[in-house]
Design a protein that fits this description.
about 160 residues, mainly beta, Immunoglobulin-like, four-stranded mixed beta sheet, 1 helix, about 15% helix, about 40% strand, binds 2-acetamido-2-deoxy-beta-D-glucopyranose
């Protein structure tokens, strides 16, 4: 009985330490975005447009405040393109912010680039979008940033 009890206490102690470690450490998330032309039919008319993973709007990125998201963008389209992490402050990574003609050369067709998106003070819903020509019209999606575990959003 005493052994079982001490094992149980030990288990609770170890899992408590693990939980604290997990909470203290910012998590890393990895996404692969495949940019490609996709046929979409709307109102009886079909047209080809650039999308991420055949999805319109594109995939949702979900992370917690303080996390870092790595997005490996594979450009299988016909033009160079960058992705901009709209509303995410990237002071440590100005070259990974994607506004074309300012900090980053376009990702050329048939090549890829991995963005490091550091969510430091951001909370709530932001968005990512392409940053060249008209591509943002079809290449965009949400970034949902949950509050750090144990806290709440600073708004209702
Ligand atoms: C996009 O497609 C690629 C290739 O099929 C896949 O590996 C990746 O997980 C997909 N990404 C998302 C965000 O669904
Ligand atoms: C889109 O449809 C056109 C016309 O049917 C076709 O030629 C083209 O290959 C299709 N594109 C894709 C990416 O499936
Ligand atoms: C391109 O993608 C490959 C395979 O996913 C990855 O190993 C490589 O690091 C990526 N290159 C860049 C520049 O992101
Ligand atoms: C911009 O997009 C239009 C329509 O898709 C295309 O004809 C044109 O070549 C593109 N321009 C550049 C600089 O990519």
């Amino acid at each position: 009985m005493a052994t079982i009890l001490s094992e149980f206490v030990g288990l609770v102690f170890v899992s408590g330490i693990l939980m604290v470690l997990c909470m203290a450490e910012a998590n890393l998330h990895y996404y692969d975005f495949v940019l490609q032309e996709t046929n979409f039919t709307r109102l009886c008319s079909t047209k080809s447009m650039l999308t991420v993973n055949d999805s319109f709007p594109g995939p949702v990125i979900r992370a917690y405040k303080g996390d870092t998201v790595y997005v490996n963008v594979h450009n299988q389209g016909d033009y160079g393109v960058t992705i901009h992490w709209h509303g995410v402050k990237q002071p440590r990574n100005p070259w990974s912010d994607g506004p074309q003609y300012i900090t980053q050369c376009p990702i050329e067709p048939r090549s890829n680039f991995t963005y490091e998106v550091i969510l430091s003070i951001e909370e709530g819903t932001l968005w990512w979008h392409a940053h060249s020509n008209w591509t943002r019209a079809s290449v965009h999606g949400a970034i949902v940033v949950y509050p750090t575990i144990g806290t709440t959003y600073p708004f209702p």
